[in-house]
Amino acid sequence: MLHTLLVGLGRSGRELHLPVLRRLRQDAGAGGDNTVAGSVFAAAPPVGFDLAPLPAGQATPGLVTVGTLAEARARLDPRTTVVHLCTPPGHRAEVLRDLAELGFTQFLVEKPLGVDSEAVAETRAVRDAYGLRLAVVAPWLHSTLTARLSETVRSGRLGALRRVTVRQHKPRLRRSLSTPSHPTAFDVELPHSVGVALRLAGGGTVTDAAWSDAICGDRVVPRMGTAELTLAHDAGATTRIVSDLVSPVRERSMVLDFDAGRAIGHYPVSGEDNFAHLRVTPIGLPEEYEIFQDDALDACLLDTYRGFAARTDFTADFELQAQVVRVLESAKQHAAAAEPDAAPTTAGPAAHERPTAAGEQVTSTKNGSIHVG
After folding, report:
1. What is the pTM of this model?
2. Which residues fall within 8 angstroms of residue 272, CB to CB, at 6 or more apart?
3. Which of 30, 155, 261, 355, by CA, is between 20 and 30 Å from 184?
4. DSSP 8-state code for residue 27
């Protein structure tokens, strides 16, 4: 059975990971649907550590907090512990190395994997140097809705996939103004949808991108208002993703246009309502409409713990998330180049290819494209 160490007790660690872990343990103890989880999770409560000192007297039910990583190591056996790395993405490799030096080897890292390809390379180097097993939090890739959209593409019943349109809107202005934790709006919602787009339509190249500031009166948070990108997939489809973090409404939708129909999916927008919607409209045939539960983060954490218990190889998932970072990095380059008074650059934008198979090499061309072979 596996123990839990939460490193980073901000919103991701305290408000997302911890409640899911508590729910999965409760379901297992009650003999619910997740009966297998009973053999995955240890009964002991998670241990939590934050890089910033916690306020005096602040306690979280179901969490044992410690003041140092060394204290966490004294409480836990690294061989049977999963470390949830929920710190901001800017300095993950340093924290990962500190934990690896203490003997921890199994990690679940919050998205995005890094702020750029250099950060990902540093994380990969630490992983390889210490022989770590590293998974990335990717709820949309564990989502029931994503699985059904993937099956619609795979089956070919609507013909070839031609276009993917994603809208990721959420009211987030208060957080952006008070606790900046992401460098740009590309780092908040888009890591979810870019991964799904790559899984559905394969690799491709960013052809256009833009961002805007979050503005409230005379207060401005640069590049944290909106983010949008266009990805031209090698197989012929096009993905367009638009995210608005100052929106007054919530929306997480994905529209797939095929030669012979359309599929419209809506992901749950918050933990208050965990239902997804899927509407499939084949040309000339009756429309199909489903509403179903879709606890994507629950599924992501449970699948990952099962993977650690079964000694699953997470390398392919890591490389897919590394490619997500390269797409977002390319989008940031496009957006920066489009800003007024942007300095000219001779470097082409980074691009993205399909997930690499074992033994394949990734190379860059002069125009900035990424090729695998």
Report:
1. 0.84
2. none
3. 355
4. H
> What is the 8-class DSSP label of residue 348?
P
Neighbours of 26 (CB within 10 A): 13
What DSSP state is assigned to residue 12?
I
The confidence band for 360, taking pLDDT boundaries of 50, 70 and 90, is: very low
Mean pLDDT of 336-353: 55
Give whole-number Cα distances, 57 to 6, 23, 53, 60, in Å: 19, 25, 11, 10
Whether the CB-CB separation of 25 and 104 falls below 8 Å is answered with no
DSSP 283: T
What the block records as the tokens of 68 is: 């140092």
Cis preceding linkage at 19, omega within 30: no
Q: What does the alpha-carbon distance between residue 162 and residue 178 come to, in Å, rounded to a whole number? A: 40
- Alpha-carbon span 286 to 273, nearest angstrom: 28
DSSP string, 69-104: HHHHHHHS-GGGEEEEE-S-GGGHHHHHHHHHHTT-
For range 94-119, the mean pLDDT: 94
Task: Give yes or no for residue 230 having a pLDDT over 70.
Answer: yes
Instruction: Find tokens 């409560």 and name the residue.
Output: 45
Distance CA 132, CA 79 (A): 11
